[in-house]
Amino acid sequence: MSADEHLDPIPDSFILQPPVFHPVSRLNTETGQLNSKLHVVPYVTTIFGGLYAGKMVMLQGVVPLHARRRTSPKLRNTPTRFQVDFQCGCCLHPRPDIAFHFNPRFYTVKPHVICNTLQGGLWQKEVRWPGVTLQKGASFLILFLFENEEVKVSVNGQHFLHFCYQLPLSRVDTLGIYGDILVKAVGFLNINPFVEGRREYPVGYPFLLYSPRLEVPCSRTLPQGLRPGQVIVVRGLVLQEPKDFTLSLRNGTTHVPVTLRASFTDRTLAWVSSWGRKKLISAPFLFYPQRFFEEGGLKLALNGQGLGATSLNQKALEQLRELRITGSVHLYCVHY
Predict the structure, then answer these.
(1) Taking every annotated instance into account, which residue ranges of this chain make up the domain Galectin (predicted)?
(2) Which one of 123, 233, 317, 324 has the lowest number of neighbouring Cβ atoms within 10 Å?
(3) Rounded distance, CA 89 to CA 11, Å?
(4) Could you tell me what percentage of the chain is helix, strand and coil, using 3-state DSSP and rounding each to the nearest 5?
(5) Cα separation of 133 and 122, whole Å?
(6) 301 DSSP 8-state letter
């Protein structure tokens, strides 16, 4: 693909925003260790495509062992805290509206989280959630799962709170992180579109900090085959001058019942049967050079958007024994 070749416009909801590791570099380049005396906040970033129901934001970080030294004697002993704001813009003056303000205060006698909305420069009625499980010096993982009328928040794998929107979710386009926190990683994920009426946090979306790059071709065994409803998640980065990408499922006799193939030559995506018959998938071609991707099948979801499906009966699924991935990609995660 030439540098000046025109690319078809892609809907914002198809774009997978790449994760950010240590937003401001505080790593010692010789030892690879994080300098815990330095802080990486405030950190403000644009949310690709804005927020909408079905999107999830993941935050990995560490509560510092010691609060930052306060310059004012009146503030020197104030409790350590941080906040995560989902903002309607990023201007400094006037201060933007904040649709969801998440503010853990974890060095008080009773650690808790304050949730609120800032509208027109005025804070609305705050909601207090006690019992937050954050400890000084300890790592944490916080998930923000956005739904039609509320956001759900889990801390270290356990549901913690829900908060009803007071501003339209469609106005949110900026994430801001402030206060006493060491940010390890920020991730943006689109949810599996095939599970309707979801009320739980999605499974199959681990966010792996410092994930080593996997070798390609990549093979994964399926000792018990697959089952209906099971999700396979593949995350990677398309190379700068790609040729093709394939994901195939094989049974115990090395027979290949189905293959998903992306061709960069003619920019097509297709299911290929065991006898070579190709079934084109009618959808935008989303594998672009230097762009991250995430997919799951046998119903195909690329960057969280449903694209197409192929059929295998339950017996054929149970007989599958190998998942094999080849092509012009850097591979970071294969999860099932």
Answers:
(1) 43-189, 218-336
(2) 123
(3) 21
(4) 5, 40, 55
(5) 29
(6) E
- Kindly report, residue by residue over 191-213, the tens digit of the pLDDT: 644 444 455 555 434 444 445 67
Residue 119 CA, chain-centre distance (Å), reads: 28
Query: Model's pTM, two decimal places?
Result: 0.63
CA distance to 48, 57, 167, 272, 299, per residue, from 141 (Å): 21, 11, 26, 39, 29
**SS3 assignment, position 97:** coil
CB 269 within 8 Å of CB 282: no
Q: Which amino acid is at 19?
A: P
DSSP class of 14: G
* Residue written as token pair 């304050």: 114
31 Cβ contact partners less than 8 Å away, ≥ 6 residues apart = none
Instruction: Name, in order, each residue with C-beta under 8 angstroms of 39's C-beta and a sequence gap of 6 or more.
Output: 64, 68, 180, 181, 182
Q: Is 186 helix (H, G, I), strand (E, B) or coil?
A: strand
Contacts of 293 (CB under 8 A, 6+ apart): 16, 235, 236, 237, 238, 286, 287, 302, 303, 329
Residue 219: closest CA among 261, 248, 252:
248
What value does the mean pLDDT of the chain take?
A: 76
Q: In this structure, are residues 247 and 259 in contact, taking their beta carbons and an 8 Å threshold?
A: yes
Q: How far apart are the first and last CA of the chain?
A: 32
